[in-house]
Amino acid sequence: MPNDDFKTIFERVKRIYQPFQGKGLEASINTENDFILTGPVTSATRGREMWFGGVQIKKNYVSCHLMSVYAFPEMLESASPALRKRMQGKSCFNFKALDEALFAELENLAKKGYERFKAEKMIV
Fold first, then answer.
1. Burial, 52: exposed, middle or buried (Cβ in 10 Å; 0-12, 13-18, 19+)?
2. Is 47 part of a structural domain of the chain?
3. Does 78 fall in a domain?
4. CA-CA-CA-CA torsion for 43, 47, 49, 51, nearest 10 degrees?
5. Count of structural domains, the chain
6. How confident is the model at residue 93 (pLDDT cuts 50, 70, 90)?
7. What pLDDT shows up at residue 101?
8. Alpha-carbon distance values, 96 to 34, 59, 87, 89 (Å)
9. Is residue 14 one of the residues assigned to a domain?
10. Does 124 fall in a domain?
11. Angle separating helix axes 4-17 and 100-119, nearest 10 degrees
């Protein structure tokens, strides 16, 4: 059972993704511990569903994926050292505590990623 801090972090990060829901993306998973946004197959996604990102409560942290930074790593060039410190792999950010400055930065990255995916016709 996740702790209350992780639930609070999960809900905060989930609010970053929710504005994109219904705008070419839908929640393929939406439970109390897992929220994933995906888009339909487009000509640019090579026959695959577009996985935009999501948030998930893990045992020791809350994991947030943002696939636009995987597809377009140059998006991270302006990322702060504090946000980069939260990275695990190429598209995953892990949080153990609330940090509004980092969440604001992540929200900005998500908006830019959504716009980039739209421009690249990866989201219709």
1. buried
2. yes
3. yes
4. -80
5. 1
6. very high
7. 97
8. 16, 10, 12, 17
9. yes
10. no
11. 30
